Amino acid sequence: MRSRTYRQRDLACTEYFLDVPLDHTRPDGERIEVYAREVVDAAKVHADLPRLVYLQGGPGGKAQRPTGRSGWLDRALRDYRVVLLDQRGTGLSTPANRQTLPRRGDARAQADYLTHFRADSIVADAEVLRRELQGDQPWSALGQSYGGFCALTYLSFAPEGLKEVFVTGGLPPLYGGADDVYALTYERTAEKNARYFDRHPGDRDLCARIVEHLCNNEVHLPTGERLTARRFQTAGMGLGMRGNFDGLHYLLEEAFVDGVRGPELSDTFLTGVAGGVSFVTNPLYAVLHESIYCQGEASDWSAERLYAQRPEFALDADTPFLFTGEMIYPFVFDADPALVPLREAADLLAAKDDWSALYDLDRLAHNEVPTYAAVYYEDMYVAREHSLATANTVARLTPWITNEHEHDGLRLGGVFGRLLDLARETP
After folding, report:
1. d(CA 24, CA 115)
2. Rounded to two decimals, what is the model's pTM?
3. Which residues contact 38 (CB under 8 A, 6 or more apart)?
4. DSSP helix/strand/coil, 86
5. For residue 3, what is the DSSP state?
6. Which value, in Å, is the radius of gyration of the alpha carbons in the chain?
7. How far is Cα 401 from Cα 60, in angstroms, rounded to an integer?
8. 3-state DSSP call for residue 18?
9. Inter-residue contact 111 to 142 (CB < 8 Å)
10. How do beta strands 256-259 and 31-41 pair?
11. N or C: which end of the chain has fewer CB within 10 A?
12. Catalytic residue among 93, 121, 140, 145
């Protein structure tokens, strides 16, 4: 393992680069690189602090880049050395995207490669890093959103590596497939739409006007591709984040300008939409999203199939406009330049019906690692029904159910601080 250390304001940072097997069941096979950054309060750099590994949300999200002490990181640095792991395929770990994946060969070779990028492989990478840093000593883990899914996989297959676990908005369903997930998240997305349009009632007619304009005109984003009504509808993915809720309104209020041929969509609006609907910075999110729910069954483009069964999301003149949420549709692989080269591989992954298990239900039922989880009651992304069922299944798991925070609540130190209080209060 290679490492290097530097100071950043009041933080001491150490970067780690380690080689891990692409397939952990074949340790002598191909290897890829995984990156992590350890952050510690510069005043405590020589203190004997325990480590806390941070598992980022996603899938396909790199760990946050610290620019100083704020939010949950500030709270964590009082007690821990924080290890920010770039999950395989993201950030400074060996990347997996439209530029690198074609080097694997055809779509089948790319899809086969990507089967090694789910939570089980991420956990195995974390275990390699833990043993490099501290041998047999367990560490603490904090999983945000999809990072919580990874944490439950960690408890299933490598609990000996964990001292305690904290989960924020990420208790996953332990069984069932993507259809069960979207049946609930479409409901929660409709609820978020209702709240949004109650706050900004004029935006519903404005969105209908945008849809009509897109259906009757060929409009292109600054990145060159055509913006369709279906793709505009996906701009609601951020409605479940408190920090994004009103940002969508501010984007919409500048939608139209008067051009030489009459009203047209403004460059400001199109630039904002382009940033919100593109997966150029996190392509694995789109490619792997439905597979994170699969254990022995194919997703078969679940979100698209269930969309067809939800008439309230129809884009027609007789149906009040609704945004969609955290759903990945096959058409985005035809529309987003970052995903177009990956369409065939994504189709193969959607058809794969022999995914391995991500959770060991028996081991979780007898879990001995203290686990504390924030469940956001109105979470648009991780349905509370699934989270609470999981909380009732996993031994030694203490849930904190709240409607005071949204899915991005971890940005605030209070959520992590509350879980730490639970840990200290629980015998």
Report:
1. 12
2. 0.97
3. 13, 14, 15, 16, 51, 81, 82, 83, 84, 133
4. strand
5. E
6. 22
7. 27
8. strand
9. no
10. unpaired
11. C
12. 145
Measure the CA angle with vertex 367, ends 362 and 370; round to 5°.
160
Q: Which two tokens stand for residue 152?
A: 């439950």
125 is known as an active-site residue: no
The conformation of residue 357, written as its DSSP 8-state character, comes to: P
354 catalytic? Reply is yes
172: left (phi over 0), alpha (psi -120 to 50) or beta: beta
pLDDT at residue number 244: 78
Which residues lie closer than 8 Å to 340 by C-beta, 6 or more apart? 98, 333, 334
- Burial class from Cβ neighbours inside 10 Å (0-12, 13-18, 19+) for residue 106 reads exposed
> pLDDT tier at 69 (50, 70, 90 boundaries)?
confident
Identity of the amino acid at 113? Y
Q: Residue written as tokens 């004997």?
A: 48
Handedness of CA 383, 384, 389, 394 (dihedral sign): positive
Q: Is the pLDDT confidence value at 243 over 80?
A: no
Closest by CA position to 117, among listed 93, 98, 99: 93
Give the residue carrying structure tokens 């409607």.
403
**Token match 């199939």: residue?**
305
Nearest 5 degrees, angle CA 36-CA 40-CA 41? Answer: 155
Catalytic entry in 28, 198, 354, 362 = 354
Look up residue 280 and give its two tokens. 């150029």
